[in-house]
Amino acid sequence: MNMAKYKGDILELLYHNRSTYLSGQTIAERLAISRTAVWKTIELLKQQGFRVHSVQNKGYQLTGFPEEWDQDMMALIIKQSSYFKRRFVYKEVTSTQLVAKEKLLEIDEPFIVISEVQTAGRGRFNRSWDSQGTKGLWMTAVFRRDVPLQKMMSFNLFLSLAIAKTIRRMSGAEAKIKWPNDIYIDDRKCCGFLTEISGEAALIQNIICGIGINLNHEASDFQQDLAVKATSLKAATGHPVNRYQFLEELLIEIEAAFRQFLVLDFKDIKDEYGQYSNIWQRKLRYTEGTTVVEGVAVEILDDGRLVVQDEKGTLHHFMSADIEI
Amino acid sequence: MNMAKYKGDILELLYHNRSTYLSGQTIAERLAISRTAVWKTIELLKQQGFRVHSVQNKGYQLTGFPEEWDQDMMALIIKQSSYFKRRFVYKEVTSTQLVAKEKLLEIDEPFIVISEVQTAGRGRFNRSWDSQGTKGLWMTAVFRRDVPLQKMMSFNLFLSLAIAKTIRRMSGAEAKIKWPNDIYIDDRKCCGFLTEISGEAALIQNIICGIGINLNHEASDFQQDLAVKATSLKAATGHPVNRYQFLEELLIEIEAAFRQFLVLDFKDIKDEYGQYSNIWQRKLRYTEGTTVVEGVAVEILDDGRLVVQDEKGTLHHFMSADIEI
């Protein structure tokens, strides 16, 4: 008997009922299969790294997940998304962003690309991003929608708020946004993302958003110079996060942010965004192109630009500066 | 003797001195080759469709070009460009825009793609564009440069002005711009273009600009419903244009416009743009997304948006409307 065909369905039942126990009888009836098939499939799940707790007379409870991304769990999570239609899950790629850009040529629907390992992960300014397998979430989310060019300027602001909220909810850590779009905990970076776009000059058609989040790294996983600048949710709070639950929440949150982005202006979320910002009331160095300014951020404008006041009192406007914290 | 190797050099001398005659002796000396090689190469040029007029005791003059795009002439024209570094010339492609997007993945430099025929030429709103071989110019110009997203909104305005100017200079026809970026002569369209972009959300890296211009079509070349809406430089003026000279001038003009675009704002060219516009003082129908307005254009704003007043006096702002003329 090939149990792989029941795996997805049983996993779905166990995952959605993971706060309780489900009896073998209940599962068998719900799926109209034999109790033997249920039992064998649960053995298969265990072999594949799922932890299923079984208690006589109560039944089964899903209590743990494989260390590596599991294709069926991914299918289950994307099935719940009302926006993303397909997922591509890899053991190793150069970067999810590159894979997404290739897929883009063939696929019309919104999709996500996830990889256990990226051998050449890249952030803004072409900076490398250390993408250790199983400890983080390395994902590219591809949005397909006609968006007026001038609206795009606020996309990263909506998205960074969504990511910061997810991190707060899932870890309890006080995630902050370093304008425009890095996420910090305790002044150390735990998430970066890179949004790329393509389309017509006045109307963007594709948004390709690569997100890297350090989830379960130990502090000792960050080597040398990274150690003072990087953190993970676990390193910051002492508690690991469940990658699947995190991904599920993140997708819900970024879908919601995308829909907000389509109908709202940045000014509508400016106050909330401001409360998540970690750059207020401190002197920082801002670099945009060849402009370097040391100063204090005084305001984010309605269009998302940041206003920084230097020591002489001169105001500088930034669209997308690199800020050293 | 293989004369093909001298073709480019002799062509270059003849092309740059085409207002006069060059003796075989002069050509031979300038290129340090034999007079026999000069004579044989000129025979080759003639075989390939160039017209070279020769007069005893005066020498040679280039007076005509092959009907189809010639690779060596193209090399010569791109060699004069200070911006575009490479060219790709095809007999037939689906569209130069598609080819350019493929090349983009491998090539870092600015380049142009030209084809004699496009089997699936497309304009804005995915409208087909009839691309008859040898009668027009079907080209995609790829610009490579980091450009802040908010600057991109004016790109088409700078470019359309460059194209309109080239058409006026090369044909004498009073080319006008139908905002934002079609070129008309006598209320008939002779040129359309489509700008696509890709890059980061705040910083565009690639501008892929597809331009189609009807040059030497006869009025009778436009079938049925197109006949009342389309024209060519020749149909409008009665005179054919030299495709190579036109291309040379066009490249110079769009390079200049691109450099202007990088350092100026639209408001700096707004007055000149306004003088080229054919939409003033007439009631037209404007469609942008689901918005349809009948009204009269009253102003172009500094950021390139068009202000249209409807019959009730209400003002509407358009970023990139489709206008029926």
Summed up, what is this model?
The structure is a homodimer of 325-residue chains. Chain A is α+β, with helices and mostly antiparallel strands.
Layout: helices, strands, pairs:
2 copies of one chain form a homodimer.
Chain A: H1 4-16, H2 24-31, H3 35-47, E1 51-55, E2 59-64, H4 71-79, E3 86-93, H5 96-103, E4 111-118, E5 136-148, H6 155-171, E6 176-178, E7 182-185, E8 188-200, E9 203-214, H7 224-227, H8 233-237, H9 243-263, H10 266-276, E10 283-288, E11 291-300, E12 306-310, E13 315-318, E14 322-324
Parallel strand pairs in A: 3-4
Antiparallel strand pairs in A: 1-2, 4-5, 5-9, 6-7, 7-8, 8-9, 10-11, 10-14, 11-12, 12-13
Classify the fold: give the CATH topology of the largest domain in chain A.
Answer: BirA Bifunctional Protein, domain 2
- Tally the helices of chain A: what do you get? 10
- Secondary-structure element order of chain A, N to C: HHHEEHEHEEHEEEEHHHHEEEEE
CATH class of the largest domain in chain A: Alpha Beta
Specify Rg of chain A, calculated over alpha carbons: 22 Å
Terminal CA distance of chain A reads 58 Å
Identify the quaternary structure here. Answer: homodimer
Helical residues, percent of chain A = 25-40%
Largest interface: A-B, 23 and 23 residues
Spatial ordering of strands, largest sheet of chain A: 3-4-5-9-8-7-6
Overall average residue pLDDT of chain A = 93
Tell me, briefly, the overall form of chain A: elongated
Q: How many runs of DSSP E, i.e. beta strands of chain A?
A: 14
* Largest sheet: number of strands, sense, barrel closure of chain A: 7 strands, mixed
Domain tally of chain A: 3
Provide the CATH superfamily of the largest domain in chain A.
Bira Bifunctional Protein, Domain 2
